[in-house]
Amino acid sequence: MKRQMKKTLILLLLVTGLYSCKHEKTLHNAVETIQAKTELKADAADLFEQIKVVALETNDSSLVGLFISRIEVWDDRIFILNELQSHNNILCFDLSGRFLFKIERTGQGPGEDVDLYDFLIDKNLNHLVLLNGIDRAMHFDMQGNFLYNIYSKDQYFPRYTVYLNDSTYLASNEGGVETGVPKGTSLIYLDARTMNVREKSSDMDEYSYNAGHNRLSVSENRALGFSYNDSIYDVSDINNIHVEYIIDNGSWQAKAKKKLRHDIDQLTGYPEQIQLLTDFFNEHYFSGKLMHIKAIHENDKYLALSCSKPVKKTRDIIDYVLFHDKQNSRTYNSENIDFGGVKLFNCSIRGADESLYCILYSTFSDEDKAKIGNSPVFTEADRKKLVEFQEEDNPLIIVLK
Amino acid sequence: MKRQNILLTLLILLTGSCVSDMPIEIKICETLHKDNAETSLVLFISEGSCAECINVEFQNLAANGELIDSLIVVGAFSKRRYFDACVNSIAFNKPLKKIFIDRSELEGVKLKASLFYFVYRKSSDYSNAFSDVFYPDVCMQDLTVKYYLSVRDKISGN
After folding, report:
1. Which of A1, A43, A170, B43 has the fewest CB within 10 Å, making it most exposed?
2. Which domain holds residue A42?
3. Nearest 5°: CA angle at A42, between A40 and A45?
4. What is the mean pLDDT of chain A?
5. Chain A environment of B45 (Cβ under 8 Å)
C-alpha cells in the first residue's frame, strides 16, 4: 500500500513537473525579447522590398510645424496630424506628396475646435474623424468638408484612438484621472456611432497599471500597446490583454524600473505618482541611460519602435527606430541600417499599413549627398528628392515595405 | 598667491562675459531696427511658449482686427518653418507682419517670458525703443483687451 502511494506520488510529481515545464516553455515561446541595444548591421535593400521617398510639398499653406504626430494613408491620400507650436491641424497630401488641403478650424462653431488632439480614419464610413481629446468627434469627408459632430455622453480622456472595426474604436484613456471611466482604466472600446464607452479594461490588469496613455498600434491582425514596464501587449481584446514582447535595454534599466514601480506603489496620489515619473525621466533620460519609446507600429514583417534620445553635445533630441524582424527575431537600429552609403539620421515612424511611414527630419551632409547620388537603394527620382531636401522643407517620408 | 588671484579674477570676468544681460526686448528692437520697422505693437512668441497661450493671443488679436495693421509678430524658433507654420495657420483678415529670429541668436539673452507684448517705437536708439511690456495671462483675457486699449493711441497712424 505504501509502495503504491509512493508510486502515485512520484507519478503526480512527474506530471506536475512536466506540466510546469511545458507551461513555462509555452510562456517563454510566446513572449519575444527585443534587444534594444542591438548593434546588428544590415543593408536596407536586404530588409525592405520597397523603399520610396515622398517629398511633402512645402508652401505657405502646407507647412509642417514642430512634429508630425500621426500619419494615416487611405484612399490614395496621406493625412498628417501636424503639431504646431500653437495648436494642431490636419494636412492632406496625395501619394506623390502634392498638397491637397488642410483642416484648420479653430473656434467653437460646427466643425471647429480649439483643441484638435488626435484623428483617425473610419474606414467603414470613409470619414476623417477629428478628436478633441475630451468628448467630441468631428466627422469630415475625404475632401476635408465638415459633416457633423458627435458628442459622447460619457466622460473620458481618449489620448490615442484607433479604428478597430465597423462599429468600434479602441482608445487609450488617460487613466489616472477620475472620470466616468474608473480611475486606472487605460483602454476603452468606443461605440463608433455615439462615441460612448462600450466596454472598458479592468483597472486591475497589468497593462492598465503601467500604460498611462501611450500610443497604440493597429494592424490587420491585432492591436498592440506598450507600457512603462518595457513590455508590449496585445490589446486587441481588452478582456484578454497579454504580453507579446519584452524590451531588453540592459540590466540597469530593468532594475531602475523595478524600483520605480515599487516607489510608485508607495504613493497614493496621482499628482505625486506623475511627479515621481517625471523626476525619474528627467534624471535618467537626459543622461542617456533611459530608453524612451514614443510610438510603436507594425506591418507584416516588422514591429517598429520609434524612440528618442538626447544628443549630449548639442542638447538636441533626436529620433531613431528599432525595426524588429518578427520572422527572424532580429532587431535593427535605424542608425545601423545602410541605405546605400548613408544612414537615416533623426527619423521616426508615425504610421503603418502594409508599409511603415518613416519621417525624416534631418537633411544630409554634402558628403552623404554625394553617396546618395550613387545609391542603388533609391530610384533616380528619389535620389533627387533626397539630395534636394533642404533644412526649411517639410520633412521627407520614407515609405518602407 | 597674487598671480593666482589675478588668474581667478580673469577667469570670473571671462565666464561672466559669456552670459549677456541684454534684455530680450532690446534684442528684438535691434532686429526691428535693422528691418526698418515702423512703430508697432509687438507680440513675441517662441519655441518654449505654451500652445494654448499662443492660440489665445492669436484669437484675441483676430477679435481686435484693427490692431493687425500695427502689429508685428516676432518669433524665436530653431527653424523658420516652425514659426511660419504657426503664424500662417491663423486666418487674420489682413496680411500679418512677421519677423523671424533664429533661436540660437538668443543664447545668453535674458528671457523673462516666452510670450509677451510690448510697444516698439521707431527710433535711432533701439536700446531705448520699447515700452509698455505686457505679459498676458490665459486666465485673464480681459486684461489683454485692456492692454490693447491702453496702447492703441501709441501705435495708431502706422
Report:
1. A1
2. 34-60+291-401
3. 160
4. 85
5. 85-86
Residue A133 lies in a domain: no
Domains of chain B: 20-155 (3.40.30)
* Calpha distance A53→A45 (Å, rounded): 14
ipTM passes above 0.90: no
Rounded Cα gap, residues A69 and A349, in angstroms: 9
pLDDT at A203: 62
A66 to B82: CB separation less than 8 angstroms, yes or no: yes
- Residue A285 host element (H or E): helix A270-285
In a domain, A147, yes or no: no
Let me know if B128 is exposed, middle or buried by CB neighbors in 10 A (0-12, 13-18, 19+): exposed
Q: Which of B81, B92, B107 to mutate to test the interface with A (most CBs of A within 10 A)?
A: B81
Distances (CA, A) of A193 to A74, A151, A197, B27: 20, 10, 11, 54
Pick from A84, A104, A392: which is nearest to B80 by CB?
A392
| Rounded Cα distance, B120 and B126, in Å | 9
Contact yes or no for B43/B61 (Cβ under 8 A): yes
**Cell 506603489 belongs to residue:** A265
Give Cα B72 distance to the centre of its chain: 9
How far is CA B60 from its chain centroid?
17
- Separation in Å, CA A67 to CA A54, A72, A304, A346, B152: 16, 15, 18, 12, 37
Spans of chain B below 70 pLDDT: 1-22, 157-158
Mean pLDDT of A10-33: 45
Q: Is A296 within the bounds of a domain? A: yes
Which DSSP string do the residues of A294-352 spell out, in sequence order?
Answer: EEEEE-SSEEEEEEEEE-TTT--EEEEEEEEETTTTEEEEGGGEESSS----SEEEEEE
CB contact under 8 A, B81 and A84: no
DSSP codes joined into one string, A3-22: HHHHHHHHHHHHHHHHHHHH
CA distance B131 to A378: 56
Give pLDDT, residue A213: 61
**Checking DSSP bridges between strand A146-151 and strand A158-165, what pairing results, if any?**
unpaired
- Tell me the whole-structure pTM to 2 decimals: 0.85
In a domain, A302, yes or no: yes
User: How many domains, in total, are found in chain A?
Assistant: 1
